Amino acid sequence: MFSSIEDLGQRLGKAKYVIDDVTLQVVYLASRMQKPVIVEGPPGCGKTALAQAIASAGNTVIERLQCYEGINEEKAIGKFDGSLQKLFLETQGDRLQKDWDAIRSNLHTLDFFVQGPLLRSLLYERPCVLLIDEVDKVDEGFEALLLEILSEWQISVPKLGTIKHKAIPFVILTSNEVRRLGEPGGEPKRRFLGRQPLGHRRFYWKVCKERAKRLQSGSIACDEDVTHPARLVQFLVRWTEYLRPLVHPSVAERLFLFVPPRGKRPASSFQSKWGSLLSGSWEYSYNQFLKEHGLGPLGTRQFRVTGLEIVHQVTGGDLRAMQAWANHARASTTERNYVGDGAKQRDEERLAEIMQVRGRWRQTQGKIEARGRPEHTDIGAATPGWTCLDPYSGLHGPKDTLCSAYAQCPVCPLGSIDFQSPYACAQAHNLLEAVRRAVETMAPQAWLKRMAPVQQKLLSAWLCEFSEPVRKAAEKLPLPPLPAPE
Known about the structure:
Strand order of the largest sheet: 2-5-8-1-9
Oligomer: single chain
Number of strands: 13
Number of helices: 19
CATH topology of the largest domain: Rossmann fold
Radius of gyration: 36 Å
CATH architecture of the largest domain: 3-Layer(aba) Sandwich
Helix content: 40-55%
């Protein structure tokens, strides 16, 4: 299809498709060697566009087989048109008895066969592009069928015989990485020229989920983080290679040192090369750890729940993050089985805080804005930067109602401020400027009665208590000015 790599690159450029050098070489070699190429990546990364661009560059047609769970041979290869065969028989009349063998032979030809994408791609006079999209969704049987066809370039159909290719198509298989191709049986992927992922190198895994009663697989982009699963597996491999000479030959090929307990059975450890079973070493070490850290009885099954509690706290209750960390197929599984009572209570408390902030913001027409504050900042006070011992005391409004006395915290006996906080220092200076601007909008007598004590208290009791380093740090904070009191 292409005379050289440069020719392929120029044609793809005319098709307005930008391609990197590695992918360009893979596509060119695949066309020269007449081998399929598999492209892996998340939806939307350009896998289908690559096939369309190659078809445009090669000035040929594209045949697309869209794969899905439960796809069968009829959808991919085709089937006989029973209605057309019946209509043909009705037109033969008297010939049915005289020349039945010839008529029966005609019934099972391509003239009465509805061709699928796989068969059509083999019958073109010049090579086409065959796109087998989302091949990772098919089962192992259909995957084996594809591999057989793509290796021999011919299709065997009952009653139709073996149909050989007229021209070998250029085949591109795409995968959204729902599962690793070729798992769990064998290594059929060795027939492909190469696996060219669009994006980062990925780490694949396959584990047995006892609750789901089936194997589950997944993948994640590799990076250099020491906590990345790929790095942890590398560490286990090196550690195991070091330990194998020390254990009994009968268990030397095992990867893990200890077998976790199931039910009431205790955890067991490896045998030494002298044959002695160290069955109590794991339990002893585990109990010592709990004792040293002041922990009560803690089963190994609780580790995962505890880990998800940490994820919940770090991410602020992000259920999707917890689902990804636990490798659950559904968020409902995580929420139902792994979100503890403490996490649910934190969610309720956070929701109450948000409702409280929203209510006060509406009561003060936007003067008290809690968004953008540091996480450690108290949101109970009615003035940004301040703290309140009891915002429901009723000193400046009805009792048991959230206080909305903006700018009154400096003169309120329940108000306080953190003198070590640059944020609090900056907001105290902002409040002083807001109080001074209120002279222009408030009646003189009202300002003298309400705002003059606030200004005097700020200057004499609050601002003078901040240290020089805190004031310098406060000057660097890009905080917007506070609204003037009314």
